[in-house]
Amino acid sequence: MRSRGAGCAAVLLMLLAGCGDGGDGGSGQRGEGGSKQPSASGVDGTADPAKVFTGAELSAALLPPEAVGKGAKAFEVALGLFDQGSGRGDWSTCAAGRDARGELWRMRGASAERTFRPDPGAVDEDDPFVYERLVSMPAGRAGRYLELRRELHEACGRVTVDTDAAPVEEHHEVRPLPDLGDEAVLETTRTTGGDEYDGSAHYEVELRVGGVLVIVGAGPDRALTLSSAAEAARRAGKDLYGAS
């Protein structure tokens, strides 16, 4: 049984709010309400698909504070080995996703992550902040990772999670984003049940630029999720692969 505190911590890690000032980034597709979606180019066909990067190289390609906002506060960069062992939904009760979850669990890669506060004086957990993570793998494995994430969301669209207080339900959706990087998906999570969850949608983009996974969390603001992810993808392509 998972405690409520642990569940909240996992949800908080996943639902970091993001923003960016990356401009229109190209034409993009039309989003909800007819607005243009941010876009970023990929590097497939021009980059070595076997190339991998160190944690230090990934760290240097993370967004700078000024990309988040003037005076934004940047927290310390965390380096380490990426795995699926923490946060990002609780899939353990979904039998249909067991194979995909097992394969994801075995995937490893160097990673670098950082969190920013657009308002350096913000202290409340509901205040906006930007979370970005870069992970390096061979391009084929990064593509397989995104394929498995799609399979997991489609197989386990509704998952019951035990807490000390009461069971809650996680509702998962996934949509492709054809204009971001080489491949990209927008993941939507809604949690209902108990006293703390009202079913509000929270968003996260997972995309790849070559063999670099770019993961950006942007809480309940879909537009900020997409703009932050596009800015991060453009920077990763330029700094790591020399894309123009």
UniProtKB/TrEMBL annotation:
Residues 24-34 have a biased composition (Gly residues). The lineage of its organism: Bacteria, Bacillati, Actinomycetota, Actinomycetes, Kitasatosporales. Residues 24-48 are annotated as: Disordered. It comes from the Bacteria. It comes from Streptomyces sp. NBC_00119. This is PknH-like extracellular domain-containing protein.
